[in-house]
Amino acid sequence: MAAIEKIRRRSGLLIAIIGIALLAFVLQDLFQSQGRNMGPTVATVDGDKISVRDYEALKERNLESRRSSNNNLSSTETYGIYNNTLEEMIKDNIMTKEYEAAGIGITSEELMDQMTGDKPHQWVVQSFGDANGNVDKQRVAEYLQNLNNLPAEYYNRWLDFEKAVKQNRLETKFDNLVKASYFLPTPLAKKYYENKNMKASADVIALRYSTIPDSTVVVTDADNKAFYEENKFRYETDERRDIEYVLFEIKPSLEDRQEALKFVQDRKAEFQAAESAANYVNDSYNSDKRYDSTWLGRKDVPEMIEQAIFDNGNGVGYVYGPYENEDAFNLVRIVDMQNRPDSLRASHILIGYKGAMGSQDTITTKEQAEAKANELLAQLKAIKNNDELFAEMAAEYNTDATKDKGGDLDWFIDGAMVPEFNEYVINNPMGSLGVVETPFGYHIVKVTDKTQPQPKVRLAFLEHKINWSTKTYQNVYAEANKFFAENRTYDQFNKAIEEQGLTKRTMPGIQKSTYQITGLENPREIVRWAFDENTKKGDISDKIFELDNNQLVVAALTGVIHEGYAPLETVIERSKYQILNKKKGEMAVEKLKACGNDVDRMVNELHAESTTISDVNIESRVLSNFGVEADIVGMIMGMKEGEEFGPVAGNASAFIIKNVKFTAPAETTDYSSIIREKTSQFTNRAMNNGVYSALRNNVKIKDNRTEIF
């Protein structure tokens, strides 16, 4: 709800305007639903089209919302919004049908009550409430009263906010309906109780598969095919692609580094002689980094300059460097030196006025605010112990979180406050009271504490990034282009990699939604190429991909996996260990059978283990120290006392089971704890996206996102 922060700051809401906004929301929904089957589609859900037009409109609103709190989105963050927007629309399509089928809806009156009623929606409380969670309806009313005077984006944000509240309310109703649908009859609760508390013990002879050398096991094509047919249902997959690629990175050459170093060296004398170090580095021709007047302690400066700045007796005007730090050559000049506290503490009373930064006051003039601040200061200075009066004034005048804390700003680091405020606290002793003007208004400041002064400096950094030159770019591009032009088949691709000593990277299992590939920045263009209907297995990319962060990539498509069961070769490759153990299981069973009932022979010749296991329970998948053996546990719990079973193959051992005994649970008629436990398990599965995941898996979705983004 980041976008609502701007709404919150502006205040306001008018009941009549809410009604208009609700009507606009309903009409917008109506018009959008009528247009959903028009134009190209980004996806279809059971035949319902999600049009590119609708998708683009929502995507732009989501981008705008995110940018309201972060205007510098990375390519990864941007793609995440693209992807999440489509997933949001797919979910909306699926769940709207479920809401209608379940008879769930939300009326305009109910939605209005969520905004302005006695128990407003939690997001309304977050956006318009105070520190205690109380919503000031007047503040909300004032916001919408001014809505028509604000840019259109604020009205659109309000509609989006309403839509989000409505959607959340529908989800809550649906979730409550699902939770209320669960019922556990007493006979079934009794069975769960018995299963959970019934314990078994048995004598076991186990032959571990690790006693059979891999070299003695022969796995045939028939074995692989049999395993695939038995287990392919476990390997259902969506559409995927496998690629291999070569990365040509454009990095500064030795010549580029030397040029960057010379640039800095040539400016050292001029930098040292400059009347204003700040003005010199603020000239972008001289430095890539502007002057920062922050006071710095030892821990705040790069380690390689600490000694020169703090230990060698150098004073104001001294220039150190060049030195290399964070892919740049640097010079640093000492601008000022002082002993200053690291941390400060103060309390304040703020008198704002019309036009002051962050002020909601629309009446008080600057002159009146200054006069009021001086009047309050005089009242405070007239009383020796003025802490109580100071707190009362802070509660009356402050609008930030300090109003309920006696005006206390708590500890803050040197430089954290606006300069005028910060310097007053630095330069005045503890207990001082004074009026300080800042862009926020007039503060009555009380200095309450500060740490011991430490040596600090202001530094001007002349920084010159070590960048690649046009010549370097051309050289690397020529290398990539030569590789691309001369290797148009997969065999040529691999041979050239080996001969040229290049690094081949792999990325199996790419999905249409993939936006991260190891070592690459913003690789969506590669993903789209891999899923293009004209790209075939074994193809080399039809161009050099020029990615962010100065990366050139040539790729090969090495695998095509269609929706459904994964292909045999893929399953076999993933399951080599399981198939090997399956064969070992067959061999182990035959070895045990050959020994008949001779346990000593099993132990001495086959190195089997004869032991007793206890506390076996149907809800446990682990069998003593033999690891995960869920099937064997199930067999034991299904046996009768005294019955013998085996040899039978498990996951990692073959077993013979004898002398099974059961310990029955204590008799009870109170199954309330079991009912609570099973209800909680159901609720957790259902509420953690379980219901939606099941619904999504049960619809046919045609995903065209790689054609759009």
Characterise the protein shown here:
With 709 residues, this protein is an alpha+beta fold. It has five domains: 4-180, no CATH class; 199-233 and 576-663, Roll (Chitinase A, domain 3); 240-251 and 469-562, Chitinase A, domain 3, CATH 3.10.50; 254-341 and 460-465, no CATH class; 343-450, Chitinase A, domain 3, CATH 3.10.50. It has a four-stranded antiparallel sheet with strand order 17-3-19-18. A four-stranded antiparallel sheet has the order 13-5-15-14. A hairpin with a 2-residue loop joins strand 1 (41-45) and strand 2 (48-51). The longest helix has 29 residues, at 152-180. The protein starts with a helix and ends with a helix. The model is unreliable at 1-38 (pLDDT under 50).
Q: What does the oligomeric state look like here? A: single chain
How would you sum up the global shape? extended
Radius of gyration: 36 Å
Share of helix, binned: 40-55%
Number of helical regions? 26
Q: How can the largest sheet be summarized?
A: 4 strands, antiparallel
| Mean pLDDT value | 89
Approximate strand percentage: 15-25%
Structural class: alpha+beta
Strand runs, count: 20
Strand ordering within the main sheet: 17-3-19-18
Uncertain stretches? 1-38
Separation, N- and C-terminal Cα atoms: 25 Å
Number of domains: 5
